[in-house]
Amino acid sequence: MSVSIRIRNAVKRYGQSTVIPDLSLDIREGEFFTLLGPSGCGKTTLLRMIAGFNTIEGGDFFFNDRLINLVDPSKRNIGMVFQNYAIFPHLSVKRNVAFGLKNRKYAKDRIESETLKFLELMKIAEFRDRMPEKLSGGQQQRVALARALVIQPDVLLMDEPLSNLDAKLRVEMRFAIKEIQHRIGITTVYVTHDQEEAMAVSDRIAVMKDGIIQHLGTPRDIYQRPANLFVASFIGRTNLIEARLETEGPAMTLRFSDGYSVPLPNVREEFRKDMAVLASIRPEEFRIGAEGEPGLRATVDSAVFLGPNTHYHVHLDSGQQGEIIQESRLDNAIPEGSVMSLAPRPEMINVFTPDGSRNILAGVRNDAIGA
Amino acid sequence: MKRNRPIVNIAIAVAAFLVLIVELFPIGITLLNGFRRDVIILSAKPFEFSQLSLRSYELVLARPGFVKSLWTSVEVGLLSTAASIIVAAMAAYGISRFRFKGRNLLAYSFLVFRMLPQISLVIALYLMFKSLGIRDTVFGLTLAHTSFNVPYVIWLLLPFFTAVDKSYEEAAMVDGCTRFGVFRRVFLPIVSPGLVVGAVFAFINSWNEFLYALILTGINARTAPVSINSLIGSDILTWGQVCAGGTILLLPIFIFTVSMQRFLIRGVSAGGVKG
What we know:
Chain A is α+β, with helices and mostly antiparallel strands. Chain A has helices at residues 43-51, 93-103, 108-121, 137-150, 167-184, 195-201, 219-224, 229-234, and strands spanning 5-14, 17-27, 32-36, 58-63, 66-67, 78-81, 155-159, 187-192, 204-209, 212-217, 239-248, 251-256, 261-263, 275-281, 286-290, 296-305, 309-316, 321-327, 339-344, 350-352. Chain B has 13 helices and no strands.
């Protein structure tokens, strides 16, 4: 049985320092939910509060309607996958997976059949009698996942489970984890600092910084309409360009320093006034034109060919540096030193208040409580 | 520089060999003289193979109380080792895993207890044991040996314990284990190499211990070192028997040291935790 997780006004302090000042969050039943943020943002702390390994200095944690603040970790019915897997080194693969079932005092043949079922699900049945030290990183990861799932937990918690794997295996395991989670339909809370990994596996992502949820939404929501400048620059890459918002009658225009402007129809009501703003444009959202065409004038400093794409490091006439990405074709390489015109796709621009705290455009979908 | 290397290596080897000879000399003398008659040892005759005999062994093993003292040594050694490991493992776990007031003070107090000279405690222990009626008993001597073994083993176990990643215990907890279940079923097996090392040292400490055994026991709970010492004190010089007894005492230490090597080499948390 899967549960929803409700967190209200959670506070975490270590001595004098407050790691999480006041955090509220709803995680839906059966969803793959990711806590994403730079190190020190409180994501692992929050996960460990859900698991019951960290004390809770304030607020309430619920699994469905059951308050779990004071429930011992062993009684929360959670499965957990640790960053270092924490597979018991003195037990064989099979006995590792069976460990939780034995604690629950299940009948012997039931332990046997459940263990085998999950060993097969994770495709490690052939290693059942091996000791952990004889397994590769990916196999250990599968054992850890099988051990976490075999007890049929209400919630699956994963703390940076892929960070010890090499790049290729990491991508492979992403799909394995996502697929298993989907098949079992268990509420999953996943912690990572890798935004690409988060986007690949998650139904929804909470981007955290300083113990505060900056933006909560689907991968698409947070990538395409980030709630603030931090989210825009933490998720993917972006170019930040100073610009001005100008009113021309009922219409709004975004004007860049060299005079180039684009219409901006989707500004929120409260920001419809002349003001300085920061425009955030992803490297892949420029149309590249020849010198003289409408757009921002830019000079190519260097070009890096990466197969499907070519990355150009450029500088604008204002001196500001930026990065643009162009799909590689047979004949579209742009030599270094060339001057070109960059026209951003207007609907893909995000515009923030000068302090970066808010996106002034309509269409930001943010499920964070209080946003 | 490179040309000098072989010479340097030879010099190191020679020096190491000399140190080894000095180290092994007393053991060699003990071993050898255990197989020679007292009269030959005392006459300072040079060694000949024809001198070798088992007579000293026969004599020492036939001495009243000697074999019994060996058994007492084994008994006290095993009992105090078991008691020390149980107490010290729980204490070291508490110190390495729980943050509480006076934690460091407690840990260092064990170090201080370990450093106290036995001679300054032994009279007090004698009086205490006498009034408790446990003087000259295996139980009493076991307690005395446990008293110095516990702090010793705690300090020996602490680095093993603190090296164990906490996630093992957390993983066991989410799998439904109680604190004590975690300790018994996950933690202790993981630190078992440390426990073995601790047990071997505790046993050796007890096996070699002389002062407490000399003063706190009489006839009933006399241990082997005291028993051998009594050979030296008598009017006749029985060096052959002392050496034979000494050789017998060396044996378990050799066996334990060899068996321990494996565990010393083996890492604390082989496998399991990645990173």
